[in-house]
Amino acid sequence: MLDLCLAKDAISLMIENGADFGELFFEDRTSNSMEMTNGSMEMVSSGRIRGVGLRAFLGTNEVYAYTNDLSRDSILATATSVGKALKGSRNQVGDFKLLASEYEQIHRIHLNPSHVTKSVKAQAMRLAHEGASTFSELVTQIKVLYKDYDQIIIVANSKGVYVTDRRLHTNLSVQAVASQGSEKETGSEGQGSAKGIEFFDEIDPRSVGMEAARVASKMILAQHAPAGKMPVVISNGFGGVIFHEACGHSLEATGVAKGNSVFAGKLGQKIAADCVSAVDDGTVINECGSSHFDDEGFPTRKNLLIDRGILKGYLVDILGGRKMNMEPNGCSRRQDYQWAPTSRMSNTFILPGKDIPEDIIADTNYGLYARKFGGGQVMPATGEFNFAVKEGYLIEKGRITKPVRGATLIGKGHEIMLKIDRVGNDLQMGNGHCGQMSGYIPVGLGQPTIRVSEILVGGRNQ
Amino acid sequence: MKLKAFKKAVFDYAARIGLKKFELFAKENYKFEVCVSRKQMEKFSDAFASGCSFKALKEGKSGSSYTEVFDEESAKSLVDDAVENLSLIDTSDPDLIFEECPEYLKIPQYDRTFEKISVEEKIEWVLSMERSAMESDSRIIIVPASFLNHKRSETFISNSAGLEASFTQGGGMIGLVAVASDGTNRKQHNEYVIGSSPEKMDPVKIGITAARKALEYLGATSIPDGKYPVIFAGNVLSDLLWLFFSMLSAEQVQNGYSLLAGKLGQKVLSEKITLVERPNYPESMFNTPFDSQGVPTREKLIVEKGMLKTFLHNMKTARRDGVPPTGNFFHEEYRDKASIRLTNAVVQPGDLSLEQMLEKMGSGIMITDIQGMFSGGNPISGNFSFGAEGFLVSGGKKDHPVEQIAISANLLEMLSHVRGLGKQLHISYPFFFGRWAPDIWIDSIDISGSSNA
């Protein structure tokens, strides 16, 4: 761990040399990763990173630097140059005390991954492989990935904040390939959580493998998705990636603060259909994007983003707050000490509505049912987004009929949000990873089954 | 403890516990970045980090570990962890270290030119880039980011067979995002210049170009679904080829993940396409004389007139195929798993100017950008469906801007119907390796657009 006096000295040096706010982030993280290909353990790696990130502001100017040379000299020299880079006047350091925050441990870990042998993890991987390999004869290749990390952080700043947090993550994912003739299709399934090895008591690793195999063997028999605009019913759980991409990113202060978002200046205005309410909540117990504190040392919280179609809030970090004249709301995150933190989503989801999912399908004459998604991306300035449907079906006369592959959904976030016309009662969380300005981080995302009345589906023309 | 002393501690301990074969890969990274928006410095970062990864081999099995902590205790746990990790490996396919006496290409190392420019000057560059974009037209409403970054990576490789090699890579990038608005719609364009030296980088020109291109897209609309003759801009061809590049990995081939399996020596793309790997390419930030195992890199033909000439190998896959390793196994960072990739991929240019190509095509579409390159494509099936934008082409000229369309095809199938290639090469955004490609004219592509299904 990092010495408290050293942290205080580093922060003081940033202030003395011109900053009006100084922050130190320390991280010590151990990680494990294992890869099994077609049932054979091919790669096992483990490692440790440890470093310090120093950040200072002067007004809305930000300077960031990091080092993993943790000698006192190195840290203080880095702090001095960070302060000086702001070109402010030399300041007297006011009297600030770093006071450790007490908090209740709500994201409990029962079995730390470093306390079990790697063969236990390998066993879970073998079960996942077995689940996939016994599912269908169409499955020809299976890759199983296991990852965990144990991250200890300290955040201290010139406002007297001093917090420590420990975040553990465990993740198991399977990629299955199904083949027929010369064609190949993939199915993948990942389960991740801010939990320890007890995670494998809650999920059956076999079912993770089976799910990947189910999708691959379904999609290899599918025809190409149709092209054009049509209603799309999006399944619950990971389907929430549509809200994450189409709306969530555009509510981050990173873009909003400088007007670089289609939702800037829209607080209190209608930006989504009446049936849409959504939150970002970093406090969901042991969920993928949860932590006790964010990476600026604020307790995480539940932030209401949209209430019955009305924009209620943004995701605001300290710097964004300074630009927008708003209070930060516990959503600042970063990949690791090599990245300056910024406003990010934690666990983002659309709240449940009243519709029965089966009714939503039954009321759709023709369209696409998107059951599983790959990744996606968005340009917040224009709202343009796209994401890949990894498991899709045609809806014909109110019934799910043929499987279709290769569909991409394309649109503009601000237009799509207004076109959500049905929201189911079956909220479910999913999880994934999100890459943005402050790096690649685990996130939770979810939703009930929803329908978008019209969206562009990229597919093949018949 | 410095890297050199740490390496000695690791090697001493590894030898003491009886390890015969091992390798150490270390990297020292320096990164600088400055970004402004609305004349304000938004981001300024100046940072240094180093670390190393270690690979232990025993009875053909290998295990890896990495650390950023350089002390005696960490040296021991680095070795112990790698040994523990290899005990879990159950592949029968032996791993190897590079034990030959290598002859490396003579490649100039990065001379730190970006580091010789003062911070004040760099800030002035990004400010002038923003200014020239904003002032070029009142419809440019914001430059969300005008940036300059540069980095230097010193790589050190050593192994138990006595290999000692090091090389310094580096370079920088300046660019900006310009957002144009006509009051109702917004379009943005990212413009950047990348290189190992700042000499030819002209911030004012980059700013003006970004603004001009963002403005060109204003008023864009979707178009009806259908099959359209298409020209892909060179940067888009590079992005599309991403799917193809991953099929070239011998690891993917051997594990049954590549459509190119069994196709060596066969025609896999149009005979108009020749793809070369050039580990020493002018201006590239990715030049290197060796890969992360110390194997020499070589200039080589990957695809010659449509014919697949070689897969890309590491030591292990090469042994399995009974061929020499190709020098294509890279750790991006010490903490990342190494993977097989190219250094600089160059698609050989053709003989047409863009104007000639447009004229010959007559009508169709020109795609200038795609979105979702990491999510909308499937390297295992070769199928893709990407969001795209560009211009309608009519009467042999670029016409109306187009947005909100999706393009879908199978890459190998599509690239076997090439009509022509541009004579100028375009560089693409540096994801992991350098990519250069000309504009390409193709028979037709499936477009989903404004039609109702």
Structural commentary:
The complex is a heterodimer of chains A (462) and B (453). Chain A has helices at 4-16, 72-85, 118-133, 199-202, 205-219, 241-246, 253-256, 318-324, 357-362, 413-416; strands at residues 21-37, 40-58, 61-67, 99-100, 139-157, 161-180, 183-193, 223-224, 228-234, 278-281, 302-307, 310-311, 332-333, 342-343, 347-350, 366-379, 384-396, 399-405, 408-412, 420-423, 428-436, 439-447, 450-458. Chain A has 462 residues and is an alpha+beta fold. Chain A folds into 2 domains: 113-149 and 167-222, PmbA/TldD fold, CATH 3.30.2290.10; 228-458, no CATH class. In chain A, a hairpin with a 2-residue loop joins β2 (40-58) and β3 (61-67). In chain A, α1 packs parallel to α2 (72-85) and α3 (118-133) runs parallel beside α5 (205-219). The mean pLDDT of chain A is 94. Chain B has 453 residues and is of the alpha+beta class. The N and C termini of chain B lie far apart (66 Å).
Please report the two chains with the greatest interface, counting residues with C-beta closer than 8 angstroms to the partner's C-beta: A-B, 84 and 79 residues
Low-confidence stretches of chain A: none
Topology, number of strands of chain A: 23
Query: How many H/I helices of chain A?
Result: 10
Distance between the termini of chain A: 62 Å
Number of strands of chain B: 18
- Share of residues in helices of chain B: 10-25%
What do we call the CATH topology of the domain at 3-11 and 23-75 and 83-214 in chain B? PmbA/TldD fold
Main CATH class of the domain at 3-11 and 23-75 and 83-214 in chain B: Alpha Beta
> Would you tell me the overall average pLDDT of chain B?
94
Share of residues in strands of chain B:
35-45%
- The poorly predicted ranges of chain B are none
Give the class of chain A from helix and strand content and strand pairing.
Answer: alpha+beta
Q: List the quaternary state of the chains.
A: heterodimer
Largest sheet of chain A: 7 strands, mixed
Mean pLDDT of chain A: 94
Number of helices of chain B: 9
